[in-house]
Design a protein that fits this description.
The structure is a single chain. Helices cover 34% and strands 17% of the residues. The chain contains 14 helices and 17 strands. Strands 3-4-2-1-5-6 form a 6-stranded parallel beta sheet, sandwiched between helices. A 6-stranded parallel beta sheet has the order 10-8-7-15-16-17, with helices on both faces. Helix 1 links the parallel strand 1 and strand 2. Helix 11 crosses helix 12. It starts with 15 loop residues before the first strand and ends in a 5-residue tail after the last helix.
């Protein structure tokens, strides 16, 4: 953090802050926002600049339009919502570059906010295009990156745009994310430390296991991630998800031999609910995780596993969770994930520090109405995972003053 300037290092009076936010929020069919965490977390940054009589130009993407403008992916629907959130009127611009945009920006008064149209309506945004970034740079005096969740992307507004600014910094959202994740990576947190990793792919999290296993007390591996470990260790996993990857298999063997046998940090489900097909109405039964019959697949934690994992969470002082423990979008296979969400909430209530990230994990917290009872919800899924691999995100690297 030493070489990274934050918005506290600048005074924004009479300045135009060009803020890269991530307002790519989930919505339902009626265009109602179902999770406004990213917008809520951006408010302190916006308030600070407004309070100093600065002007704000907001840059964001929404969806995957692949360079083609589309009414259904326009950011315009956000205007009434932002008005309620910021308690200020927010202007909208139908494009994000060009003379008409520059004119609107030049007419901004101190304390005003302008939201520009979806960056990804221009294919150049995803191509690290210098010319596109230069045109964006004409719209502000100070560049602010407050979009942690896309700071792992090599996109024009993330990695190239900062090059055109002498004054560049991160916002409060970015600062918080970096601080909390660095805290976890340092291992300088209250023990026992418990890491819960779920989801389908072990490849996206194997490096995180390697980093955490050196200092975590418990690493609980559930969901689809557990089955490669069980199979490689000689168990039968039936038709459960198994990611074939020779490199990953070698890493799993190394982790099991070098670390797990030495200090026993890894913990796996004892039993699982298996199904004879991948649907909510499938036939089910409970079996030990290492004895899943052929033709059956593990889709959720079994009752013994839930109790086992929740007992570990209960005695933890620091908890990190990413990824569901089963196919929680199917109601009949959601109990494991929902039970974990409740257990983390209860541990937090008793004084543990909890950090949860990833859309599915946060969605399950919302199902239980306990998302506000967690110490910190990370706004980034992919960005968070990249950070926890001990990598500096490209978006942070682009801000560093040399």
């Amino acid at each position: 953090m030493k070489n990274i300037k934050t918005i506290n290092d600048f005074n924004f009076k009479n300045k135009t802050a060009l803020i890269r936010v991530d307002f790519n929020v989930p919505i339902n069919n009626a265009y109602q926002i179902t999770d406004d965490t990213r917008i809520s977390y951006s408010i302190p940054t916006i308030q600070k600049i407004i309070s100093e009589k600065g002007k704000i130009v907001l840059l964001s993407h929404f969806g995957r339009p692949k360079g083609i403008p589309s009414k259904i992916l326009s950011l315009k629907f956000l205007i009434p919502f932002l008005y309620k959130k910021f308690k200020l009127s927010v202007n909208f611009c139908e494009n994000c570059i060009g003379e008409s945009v520059e004119k609107k920006v030049s007419n901004l008064k101190n304390g005003e906010i302008l939201l520009l149209e979806n960056l990804r309506f221009h294919k150049e945004e995803e191509e690290e295009n210098e010319n596109f970034a230069f045109n964006l740079s004409k719209l502000g005096n100070i560049y602010v990156n407050d979009a942690f969740s896309v700071s792992h992307r090599f996109h024009s507004s993330i990695t190239i745009l900062p090059k055109f600014f002498k004054k560049k910094c991160i916002g409060f959202l970015m600062e918080k994310e970096i601080q909390f994740l660095n805290k976890f990576l340092s291992g300088k947190v209250k023990k026992p430390i418990t890491i819960l990793l779920g989801g389908a792919k072990v490849s996206s999290k194997i490096k995180i296991i390697e980093n955490f296993i050196k200092f975590a007390n418990y690493i609980l591996i559930g969901g689809g991630m557990a089955y490669p470990f069980i199979k490689i260790n000689g168990g039968k996993i039936g038709n459960s998800i198994f990611e074939k990857n020779k490199k990953i298999e070698k890493t799993i063997i190394k982790i099991l031999d070098k670390y797990h046998k030495k200090n026993g940090t890894l913990f796996f489900p004892k039993d699982v609910i298996v199904a004879d097909s991948f649907k909510n109405t499938a036939n089910t039964k409970i079996v030990p995780i290492n004895s899943i019959p052929y033709g059956w697949m593990g889709l959720d934690l079994g009752p013994n596993s839930i109790k086992y994992f929740c007992n570990i969470i209960e005695k933890s002082k620091t908890i990190f969770w990413n990824g569901p423990m089963g196919v929680f979008e199917f109601h009949n296979f959601s109990l494991g994930t929902r039970s974990i969400a409740k257990a983390i909430t209860n541990a937090t209530k008793k004084g543990a520090f909890s950090l949860v990230g990833g859309g599915d994990s946060i969605a399950s917290l919302k199902m239980e109405g306990c998302e506000k009872k967690i110490s910190y919800l990370s706004t980034g899924g992919g960005a968070m995972l990249e950070s926890l691999k001990n990598k500096m995100l490209p978006g942070i690297k682009a801000i560093i003053h040399k």
